[in-house]
Specification:
Elements lengths: L17 E2 L13 H11 L1 H5 L6 E4 L2 E4 L3 H4 L14 H5 L9 E6 L5 E4 H7 L1 E10 L4 E11 H8 L7 E6 L7 H5 L8 E5 H5 L4 E6 L2 E2 L9 E3 L12 E7 L6 H5 L23 E4 L5 E3 L7 H4 L13
The structure holds ligand MTE.
């Protein structure tokens, strides 16, 4: 597959690019996936040391301070565990994230399943510090560990029909109590990107944060991170990725199309029907800050949306 990829200036994130090297003879299958990632992160500890998550990080000419880890891992949205921000941390510890397989199918050369551990051995891990803006008008700054989604797309080899990528969260009501108890949302949670958005180097599949494996409440073992879109696009605990010809409906779009668009692009000029999006509450800090178009990443990605009427939800 041939795609035109722009080179993203590194001013938008600090990059640590590392091949995940597994020593010859490592019994990968015998290692729990989390332990494997923890071992790799430990190996890279020295590299990461200079990037203390609590430091201020330069982004787009300004200084950004990472949200405290305790806050980012205890104030969460993960409706499979309940409505309250504290539910995910209190209830997600039972989520079994190993073994974990990801099914890749749809408009690709050959559908396949890949284990999380195999996938880790095929990609380059990076640390990226991104703004994270929820549609509920709050924000954080998160140091993610993950890999560019385009690496997985290249492994999948989509055919010329593929125009959209759909991600699905594991469906298992035994582990995700809300999936069984009530139809709050049309579970399993699904999210969709256009293929060109998915190929953008800013788009990550995260496996860790704060230099550690992702905790279950933040979407272990694998979640999407699209920093210029509202947080609802960043689907957690993914176990299926499909390449599609026609645009499917994503979970929030199906739930309430007047409030949650397909694109979910951060835009201070487009109010949510029930509140303004002009400013955001920075979790862990006092007061509000102005919200930036495309969450501060406009120079990288605004070309995707030329010609779209920003006042409409698509
Ligand atoms: N993914 C799943 N499967 N279920 C969810 O409820 N919530 C979304 C997104 N991904 C959600 C999800 C929303 S609304 C937000 S704001 C972010 O996850 C929150 O991510 P965080 O808890 O890591 O901050």
């Amino acid at each position: 597959m041939k795609q035109d990829l722009e080179i993203t200036p590194e001013k938008f994130f600090k990059v640590r690019r590392r091949f995940l090297k597994l020593g010859a003879g490592t019994l990968v299958s015998a290692l729990m996936a989390d332990n494997l990632l923890a071992a790799v992160l430990k190996e890279q500890e020295l590299e990461f040391k200079e990037m203390n998550a609590q430091e201020a990080f330069a982004l787009n000419g300004e200084l950004l301070e990472a949200t405290k880890e305790e806050i980012a891992t205890s104030y969460n949205n993960f409706y499979e565990f309940g409505f309250f921000k504290t539910d995910p941390k209190n209830k997600a510890h039972s989520l079994k994230t190993s073994p974990w397989d990801i099914r890749i199918e749809g408009e690709i050369e050959e559908p396949f399943s890949i284990s999380y551990t195999d996938l880790l051995s095929k990609v380059h891990l990076v640390e990226r510090v991104y703004r994270f803006r929820c549609v509920e008008a709050w924000s954080m700054v998160i140091p993610w560990v993950g890999f560019e989604l385009r690496e997985l797309i290249e492994l999948a080899r989509p055919n010329a029909n593929a125009k959209y990528v759909r991600f699905t969260t594991l469906y298992d009501p035994k582990q995700f109590p809300m999936q069984g108890i009530m139809q709050l949302l049309d579970f399993p949670y699904k999210e969709v990107l256009r293929l060109d958005e998915a190929m953008h180097p800013l788009t990550l599949l995260a496996v860790g944060m704060y230099k550690k494996p992702l905790p279950p409440q933040n979407g272990a073992p694998l979640r999407l991170v699209v920093p210029w879109k509202y947080g609802y696009k960043s689907i957690k605990s993914i176990n299926k990725i499909e390449f599609l010809k026609d645009k499917p409906i994503s979970t929030w779009e199906a739930e309430n199309p007047k409030e949650y668009g397909f694109y979910g692009n951060v835009d201070p000029e487009v109010s949510h029907p029930r509140w303004s999006q002009k400013s955001e509450r920075v979790i862990g800090k006092r007061g509000q800050i102005a919200t930036l178009y495309l969450n501060g990443y406009a120079s990288e990605v605004e070309h995707f949306y030329q010609g779209l009427d920003r006042t409409k939800l698509y």
